[in-house]
Amino acid sequence: MKQDLEDGIKVIVPCGSLGAGVREEEIARGLELGAQAIATDAGSTDSGAAYLAQGKSKNNRGAVKRDLKIMMKAQATSGVPIIVGTSGQAGGDLNLAWTRDIVLEVARELAVSPRIAMIHCEQDKATIKRLNAEGRITPLAPSQDLDDATVDACEHIVAVLGVEPFVAALEDGADIILAGRATDTAVIASFPIWKGAPWGPSWHAGKIAECGAQCAENTTGGAGVLLSIDAEGFEVEPLAPGNRCTPNSVSGHMLYENSDPFRLTEPGGVLDVTTAEYVSLNDQTVRVIGSRWEPQPYTMKLEGAAAGPYQTIMLVGIQDPDVLADIDGFHDRLLAALYERTRQSIPEEELGEFHISLRMYGWNAVTGVKPLAGTATPPEVGVLFVATAANQELANTIAHACNPYFFHYPSIMGKELPSYGFAFSPADIPRGRIYEFKLNHVVRLDDPFELVTTEWLDLSQENGSKEKEYA
Amino acid sequence: MPKLGEVCRYIRSKQAGPFWITFDIFFDGRENFDRYHESPELSVEAFARLYGADPAYVKRIPVPQLNMIKISYPRPTPQGGLVERDMHAGQQYVRLLNVPIS
Questions:
Q1: Can you give the residue ranges of the DUF4387 domain (chain B) (predicted)?
Q2: Contact, A319 vs A411, CB < 8 A?
Q3: Cβ-Cβ contacts under 8 Å, A258 against chain B
Q4: Residue A161 and residue A257: Cα distance in Å, rounded?
Q5: Are β-strands A82-89 and A122-123 bridged in parallel, bridged antiparallel, or unpaired?
Q6: ipTM of the complex
Q7: How many CB atoms lie within 10 A of CB A263?
Q8: Which chain A residues have a beta carbon less than 8 Å from that of B59?
Q9: Could you tell me which residue, A404 or A2, shows the higher pLDDT?
Q10: Using one digit for the tens of pLDDT, what is the confidence trace for A125-160?
Q11: Is residue B86 within 8 angstroms of chain A, CB to CB?
Q12: Residues B83, A256: C-beta atoms closer than 8 Å
């Protein structure tokens, strides 16, 4: 182990996220350079709460399978472990099971028999309510104290994993780790930490490499990077020939999707890179020293996804000069007319709580803020109608009631009725539910394993029929 | 007075978890960073006004090594909610481009 640290503990991060396109030649190059593990996340919260709420992956099954196949082939021939976190985009039990089934299919196709550790971190509501009642759950800014109603609103809840369960699974001989929701950083940091590397450089390396080649100069010139963590710091280099990591490209990644570029809170501590120094070793490689880990009382972040009301949408394109001459006024008048029309068409007791919004694409749809006076008139606007109601049928009914007004409402009353440009028939599109993250809280734990269950699938025994489970 | 977009090489916005939006404002060189990053137009208060944020929660962190300043604030509504207009918040930086800066 000491020898390892002197040479550097080497980890391939093959892509930004599983399914994004692992490159076989990059993995081969990383292994040639002495890589001892392949680690990547398979999702995040970035794309919204739907994936946790529904237990579905955002990524295409074929794309994930393709990436896993390349990695599992390399695993079988080299023996280096594969570490995957946030399986199936959100890391709930359904997301994890989806990923497991793909791994089992690939194992059959490749005729390989790895030992697979599945690290579960989905929580039942009763557990969360109990922890909350015990005063162990605290809100993160800007959220408030947790109440039972918020817990009940969630479809699925996960506790975000740190390195400890990964380290335990590596210690127990896992060839493949499929984990539930984990911090991107922990997935990568777990291997060097298991090998005895210092925690500061291990976590920092994990953060820098969490999006694969995004920490390189040419973020699309290849998929993966190779990390090497030693007793003093770490090195990072892209796996695609011709691409480069530079001090700017590497340190710049600390800014990415973070509210604080110097201090990153993780389960069990804070990564502090305030005193980190980034230097070029050669054309490809950057060396980083001075990363510090400050141990803190152990916490795991909770993520919970709720399914809300249903939406139906319609879209028209408008080039009508009267509308374009007063887009904000048209928006306000049409919206008022649609609310009135809805209330007149559908009995109040049936309607319940509902909402209509209009987004003026080509004008101010992405902010909703009225443009300054004197803003140039666009050649056309696309108007998106969004009705939100308690169920899909009701949202559809609102859209149907609004359809003639949305189609014909004039900007100047008394003129002949215009007809705006529908793109589809039927014009209304039932869109499904709204999904929202509800929890922004952390839970204090004395034992990092309290909310974690590791399940083993040992394909080397009885062709995978043997499953044992322990916490 | 120049506009912020004219003294920067790159400005971006992105979600930082489901509850925060973060802005990375990269000045065009050290000279512009030194001259403009403490401008009142980039203060916590000015930023909060521009985005309708609560100034008590706005985080503002200069990173001199990269000639940039990072400003973050909690989303007024959680990601993906009823009135979501920009799921990844990737377009929210645009109104910064035309802010006159002294």
A1: 4-99
A2: no
A3: 16, 22, 70
A4: 19
A5: unpaired
A6: 0.91
A7: 15
A8: 259-260
A9: A404
A10: 999 999 999 999 999 988 999 999 999 999 999 999
A11: yes
A12: no
